[in-house]
Amino acid sequence: MAPLISLHEVTYRYGDGTTALNRLSLSIERGERLALIGANGSGKSTLFLCLIGILKPAEGSICFEGKPVQRHKAGLLELRKKVGMIFQDPDAQLFCLDVYQEVAFGPSNLGWGRDMVKAKAEEAMRRTDVYHLRDKAPHFLSYGQKKRVAAASVLVMEPEALLFDEPTAGLDPQHAKEMMDFIGGLDAAVCLSTHDMDLAFGWADRVAVLKDGNLLAQGDPPSVFKDAETLEKAALYQPMTLRLYRFMQEQNLLPHTACPPRSVDALLKLFPSPPAGGSRRLF
User: Fold this and answer.
1) Which of 53, 229, 236, 242 is the most exposed place for a label (fewest CB within 10 A)?
2) How far apart are CA 63 and CA 66, in angstroms?
3) Range 195-204 average pLDDT
4) DSSP 272
5) Residue 267 has pLDDT above 80, yes or no
6) Which candidate, 195, 96, 91, places its Cα nearest to that of 137?
7) Residue 270, phi then psi, degrees to nearest 5
8) Is the dihedral of CA 145, 148, 150, 156 positive or negative?
């Protein structure tokens, strides 16, 4: 079966001649969680804009379910029903007078019946915890609320793939956790870009490393993040959980046969329980 989305040797150049994507080949499988990691200027956002048809590659091809994406109006409209993007800056995609209109805008423009639009919009608002804001102007919402409204405006279209550009950027720890909990509960394939290596390590099924528009590496998180040389080339770092895990092995605090944990909680569970009345101390 063909991947849900596939790119084959895609190249994109900006007007000043900068090559943002360089013969890049990558796929997104049905239902998977893919994290794109790379420094600023590595090509992550450009890749997303190509995937939703805003930018047109100079070379290469993009396919959805094995079929090339059609660049005419009807083809791009069909693509955007199936692939939705939540921008890093929610103000870039919020423009209606209130939250309900914002969420209902997409399906209304597809000609859905009034009752269906209302039902789907209310469902999307509830799923993103913004239903109580339905009559509020997006302009007056907090940054985190705006992000959730932007997510609702895409989720309402019931896309098969969702692209999140830096979903936790600008959010405090509690709202960042809420956003990732929301993303983790989605049924669609999800591809997100992030500078947070611990997030990518703990969340993703697969990680792709970009640098200057090139794909340096891809694979499961433990395999990618143990490659310190590739991470250094991409100006990235190993997740704190993995660094602590390796340090503890070097200090003989953990067996060398243990599988790398993907979170601090998983790391702590590798230690034996303290005796009754005692406390767990790492050092």
Assistant:
1) 229
2) 5
3) 94
4) P
5) yes
6) 96
7) -75, -15
8) negative
Q: Is 277 helix (H, G, I), strand (E, B) or coil?
A: coil
User: Mean of the pLDDT values across residues 182-193?
Assistant: 92
Higher pLDDT, 221 or 278: 221
Q: What's the topology of domain 29-60+72-238?
A: Rossmann fold (3.40.50)
Predicted confidence at residue 123, as pLDDT, reads 94
Read off the pLDDT of each residue in 72-91 and give the average, rounded to a whole number.
Answer: 89
**Predicted local distance difference test score (pLDDT) of residue 175:** 86
**Closest to 193 (Cα-Cα) out of 178, 177, 181, 210:** 210
Q: How many CB atoms lie within 10 A of CB 107?
A: 22
Please write the tens of the pLDDT for every residue from 235-266: 999 999 999 999 988 888 888 776 889 988 88
CATH 3.40.50.300 region(s) of the chain? 29-60+72-238
What values do phi and psi take at 113, rounded to 5?
-65, 155
Phi-psi group of 17: left, alpha or beta (phi > 0 → left; psi -120 to 50 → alpha; rest → beta): left
Residue 164 to residues 12, 151, 198, 271, Cα–Cα distance (Å): 20, 9, 17, 35
- Give the 3-state secondary structure percentages of the chain, helix then strand then coil, rounded to 5: 40, 20, 40
Q: Sorting pLDDT into bands at 50, 70 and 90, what band is 141?
A: very high
> Who's near 105: CB < 8 A, 6+ residues apart?
96, 153
Q: On the CB side of 179, how many CA atoms lie within 13 Å of its CA?
A: 26
Alpha carbon distances (Å) from 273 to 40, 96, 209, 258, 277 = 42, 54, 37, 17, 11
Structure tokens at 87: 């921008």
User: What residues have CB less than 8 Å from 150, skipping those under 6 apart?
Assistant: 86, 87, 90, 93, 94
What is the pTM for the complete model shown?
A: 0.89
Average pLDDT value for the chain: 91
